[in-house]
Amino acid sequence: IATTTSPHTARELEGALLVDAETASRMLGVAVQTLARWRTEGRAPRFAKIGRAVRYSRRELEEFIAARMRTSTTAPVPSEGP
Q1: Which of 9, 35, 57, 64 has the highest local Cβ count within 10 Å?
Q2: Rg of the chain taking only CA atoms, in angstroms
Q3: pLDDT (tens digit, 9 = 90+) per residue, 37-48?
Q4: Residue among 65, 27, 45 nearest 36 (CA)
Q5: How far apart are CA 7 and CA 40, in angstroms?
Q6: Secondary structure E strands in 1-82
Q7: Residue 35: count of CB within 10 angstroms of its CB
Q8: What is the pTM of this model?
Q9: pLDDT digit string (tens) for 2-56?
Q10: What does the alpha-carbon distance between residue 74 and residue 76 come to, in Å, rounded to a whole number?
Q11: Would you put residue 29 in left (φ > 0), alpha (ψ -120 to 50) or beta?
Protein backbone atom coordinates (compact mmCIF):
# COMPACT_ATOMS: atom_id res chain seq x y z
CA ILE A 1 0.00 0.00 0.00
CA ALA A 2 1.45 3.30 -1.07
CA THR A 3 1.27 6.21 1.31
CA THR A 4 1.76 9.83 0.56
CA THR A 5 3.99 11.91 2.74
CA SER A 6 3.74 15.62 3.22
CA PRO A 7 6.85 17.68 2.56
CA HIS A 8 6.16 19.41 5.88
CA THR A 9 6.38 17.83 9.30
CA ALA A 10 3.83 18.65 11.99
CA ARG A 11 6.53 20.60 13.85
CA GLU A 12 7.20 22.80 10.79
CA LEU A 13 3.49 23.52 10.37
CA GLU A 14 3.17 24.51 14.05
CA GLY A 15 5.53 27.40 13.39
CA ALA A 16 3.90 28.46 10.11
CA LEU A 17 3.11 32.15 9.92
CA LEU A 18 -0.01 31.56 7.83
CA VAL A 19 -2.57 28.79 8.24
CA ASP A 20 -5.48 27.66 6.09
CA ALA A 21 -9.15 28.09 6.99
CA GLU A 22 -9.43 24.54 8.35
CA THR A 23 -6.59 25.10 10.82
CA ALA A 24 -7.95 28.55 11.72
CA SER A 25 -11.40 27.10 12.36
CA ARG A 26 -9.91 24.48 14.69
CA MET A 27 -7.98 27.18 16.56
CA LEU A 28 -11.19 29.19 17.00
CA GLY A 29 -13.43 26.21 17.70
CA VAL A 30 -15.88 27.02 14.92
CA ALA A 31 -16.86 25.31 11.68
CA VAL A 32 -15.05 26.22 8.46
CA GLN A 33 -18.43 27.38 7.11
CA THR A 34 -18.86 29.73 10.09
CA LEU A 35 -15.46 31.25 9.40
CA ALA A 36 -16.41 31.70 5.72
CA ARG A 37 -19.67 33.41 6.73
CA TRP A 38 -17.79 35.67 9.14
CA ARG A 39 -15.49 36.70 6.27
CA THR A 40 -18.45 37.78 4.13
CA GLU A 41 -19.95 39.64 7.12
CA GLY A 42 -16.66 41.35 8.01
CA ARG A 43 -16.58 39.60 11.42
CA ALA A 44 -13.66 37.22 10.81
CA PRO A 45 -10.07 37.75 11.86
CA ARG A 46 -8.03 39.58 9.23
CA PHE A 47 -6.98 37.23 6.45
CA ALA A 48 -4.86 37.15 3.32
CA LYS A 49 -6.00 36.11 -0.13
CA ILE A 50 -3.17 34.46 -2.03
CA GLY A 51 -4.59 33.59 -5.39
CA ARG A 52 -7.80 31.79 -4.48
CA ALA A 53 -6.44 30.59 -1.15
CA VAL A 54 -7.53 32.20 2.12
CA ARG A 55 -4.85 32.25 4.80
CA TYR A 56 -4.85 33.50 8.38
CA SER A 57 -1.93 34.79 10.38
CA ARG A 58 -1.43 32.83 13.59
CA ARG A 59 -0.74 36.13 15.35
CA GLU A 60 -4.02 37.64 14.05
CA LEU A 61 -5.91 34.56 15.27
CA GLU A 62 -4.28 34.78 18.70
CA GLU A 63 -5.14 38.50 18.91
CA PHE A 64 -8.72 37.78 17.78
CA ILE A 65 -9.06 35.24 20.58
CA ALA A 66 -7.36 37.49 23.17
CA ALA A 67 -9.73 40.37 22.33
CA ARG A 68 -12.66 38.12 23.21
CA MET A 69 -11.40 36.82 26.55
CA ARG A 70 -13.76 37.47 29.48
CA THR A 71 -13.95 37.17 33.22
CA SER A 72 -17.77 37.36 33.19
CA THR A 73 -20.53 36.13 30.90
CA THR A 74 -22.06 39.62 30.99
CA ALA A 75 -18.89 41.43 29.85
CA PRO A 76 -19.45 42.89 26.36
CA VAL A 77 -17.30 42.02 23.38
CA PRO A 78 -15.16 45.15 22.72
CA SER A 79 -16.53 45.54 19.18
CA GLU A 80 -20.13 45.25 20.44
CA GLY A 81 -19.98 48.44 22.48
CA PRO A 82 -19.72 49.41 26.16
Answers
A1: 35
A2: 16
A3: 999 999 999 999
A4: 45
A5: 32
A6: 18-20, 47-50, 53-57
A7: 21
A8: 0.71
A9: 444 555 555 555 667 999 999 999 999 999 999 999 999 999 999 999 999 999 9
A10: 6
A11: left
